[in-house]
Design a protein that fits this description.
The protein has eleven helices and nine strands. α1 (24-32) links the parallel β1 (10-17) and β2 (38-45). 40% of the residues lie in helices and 18% in strands. It has helices at residues 24-32, 52-62, 78-88, 110-121, 168-180, 191-201, 230-241, 244-255, 262-268, 272-279, 289-305, and strands at 10-17, 38-45, 66-68, 96-100, 105-106, 125-134, 139-142, 165-167, 206-218. Strands 1, 2, 3, 4, 5, 6, 7, 8 and 9 form a nine-stranded mixed β-sheet that branches. It is α/β, with parallel strands linked by helices.
Length: 308
């Protein structure tokens, strides 16, 4: 008798959209053209003014692999939009879950490589490097695959969320947590950072692939893009000086149940001494060597001006 054919890995792609009709055709073509996997794209649209809802409605009528969630809600950012997808999509029939932005270009074997890496390593979560590109034609390789550190997940993401792929068991744990504590997630600003932190805090192995399988589009409407250029430097400096980054870290630590860890208790309460001590832990808090220096300098700045 012939050998049974192994079914393709099934992936639920969660796409959060807002005023994205300009780039959606290219993005969706690259997602629906993925090789070696069986996909269904679940879409949540933040109320848009450019016809994004209608565009997906028309696509859904001709493409059975696209499921548009009921429209009409205002989320005000990518994170609450993705959290809506995590709460409402039924992941029980899928092997993996992936995040998708509305404006990138996925290479044809992006998901095949990610699911293969997860199978090969036994990890529960995956992210990767990217190639950032601009409409001017400029492009640059963005490395995110620096070795993970003991506490990096409390202070940064594992890379752009559009590279994230994770197993169903992790997706279901995230779903339960978000359903049980919807209010606690309202002020979380970055869904990818939260996902990575949640996974690491619960001892789910995570790999960061030194391979770029998507073109990461950069434009004026990016909510968070690559950390490159003067504008990005100014944005980061403002976030440091108003304490946004450490406030997010504190909020995420509480949400994922890490607030009682001795390391977290050292700085959770705020104060100059707390962030000063944190500066000396920079080597354990960020992956990229230059980011460790930036982190230490940021903590020193907050020690001077005060962080509550």
């Amino acid at each position: 008798m012939p050998e049974p054919v192994n079914p393709l890995p099934s992936v639920a792609v969660c796409l959060a959209a807002f005023n994205g009709v300009r780039y959606l055709p290219q993005q969706m073509d690259s997602i629906l053209g993925q090789a070696g996997v069986a996909i269904t794209v679940f879409v949540s649209v933040d109320c848009s003014s450019d016809g994004t809802e209608d565009w997906f409605q028309r696509l859904q009528e001709t493409e059975h692999r696209v499921v548009l969630l009921p429209c009409g809600e205002k989320f005000g950012g990518a994170a609450p939009n993705f959290f809506r997808l995590l709460r409402e999509v039924d992941f029980s029939a899928f092997d993996y879950v992936a995040y998708a932005d509305q404006d990138d270009i996925w290479l044809p074997e992006k998901l095949k490589r990610a699911t293969g890496q997860l199978t090969e390593t036994g990890a529960d979560g995956y992210s990767s490097d990217v190639v950032a590109f601009w409409e001017s034609g400029r492009s640059t390789y963005i490395r995110k695959s620096y070795p993970q550190r003991q506490w990096d997940y409390l202070f940064e993401s594992a890379g752009p969320g559009c590279t994230f792929v994770f197993r169903r068991n992790l997706a279901l744990e995230l779903q339960t947590a978000l359903r049980q504590n919807r209010e606690g997630a309202q002020d979380v600003g970055l869904h990818d950072w939260f996902t990575y932190a949640f996974a690491r805090a619960r001892n789910h192995p995570w790999i960061i692939d030194d391979y770029a399988s998507l073109m990461y589009r950069q434009h004026g409407d990016n909510q968070v893009g690559v950390n490159a250029g003067v504008s990005a430097l100014v944005w980061r400096a403002r976030k440091v000086l108003d304490g946004w980054g450490l406030n997010q870290a504190r909020m995420i630590a509480r949400f994922i149940g890490a607030g009682d860890l001795p390391f977290v208790r050292q700085w959770m309460g705020g104060g100059r001494l707390a962030v000063l001590n944190l500066a000396f832990q920079a080597r354990n808090c960020r992956r990229k060597p230059m980011d460790r220096l930036w982190f230490a300098m940021s903590c020193l700045a907050l020690a001077v001006i005060g962080w509550k």
